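Protocol step 4 of 6: record predicted structures for both targets in the notebook before any analysis. Target 1:
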Amino acid sequence: METARLMLETARAMRTYTTTQVAPLLDQERAKAERSVQNMEQVLDVQMPAALQKALPRLPAAKEQRILQITRQQLANSVHPQQNDETEPQFFPQSIPFYAQIVSVPADVALNHAAAAMKTVLIWLAGVFAGLYLIVNAIVFVFISKLVPAPAPQ
């Protein structure tokens, strides 16, 4: 029973470690990724169009200006649809830092170990009780045989 209890407490401790130590790290990584996406959107939506708009009048030929506008539009169209495709963040095990590990132990494994530990404990208890029974009977036999006098020979 002690082994089974120890195994269950170990599994509980691993789960607690995962939720208290690893989950905040994953949240930090997710927050960094979201900030990076926001920064990239800022660059693509605000800064790059402003820079292109500023550069547009400096181009001497109308053909170059048209090419620049088409390129800007193609770039904006190619970036934004990809960002809208991912509506929910995905979890990739590779994203967990090397110092963190998520451990999952199936319940059957713990139950099988607990049953084997219980069987071992019961066998040991039966052996101890049988040994004590024999020792107590031997001691009682010796004391009774000394207290009761042997029959006198006739």
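Target 2:
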Amino acid sequence: MSTLLFDIEADGLNATKVHCIVTIDTETEEVKTYGPDALHDGVASLLSADRLVGHNIIGYDIPTWIKQGLIDYVAPTDFFYPDFNAKYEEFAALTESIQALAKEKEEFEKVTKTMDAMLEEKYEELDNLKKSIDDLEAEKTASERELVEVLAEKEKKIRELEKPKKIVDDQDLSD
């Protein structure tokens, strides 16, 4: 039984162009890359495998293949229990709901990115405010030191002016 691990690369969640398909054969570990001109060969390789393993293949890869005209339809069956009378409408609804979730996720990521940018701006503003406060505190401390020095000078002058008066007062008392 051949098993292929695979992934596609395209131009976004709502893909308009598939760039490549990459497969890895789990038995031989052979890696194959199918570029834009060989996408049909890549899909043919995948369809010839007994088992496919991939991430989000039902919600993204397969719907993208269908949109790009790489395959016509997908039969939702289990390898061991094929049901050729499967309810395709349910499968299609599931695929559509997964696509809707993918769109919601994309919108959520856009909003999150915008909010992250806004938050980063606010953090920068906060840092600037903290710096301004620190600068004001430094200025206040410098002003307080200046004021203390001025007051000390004034007290010194007052003491100097009071000394001669005391001497004169003391002399007046002895006469």
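Step 5 preliminary note on target 2. The CA atoms of residues 14 and 51 lie 26 Å apart. The beta strands are 3-10, 18-25, 31-34, 51-53.
Proceed to step 6 after PI sign-off.
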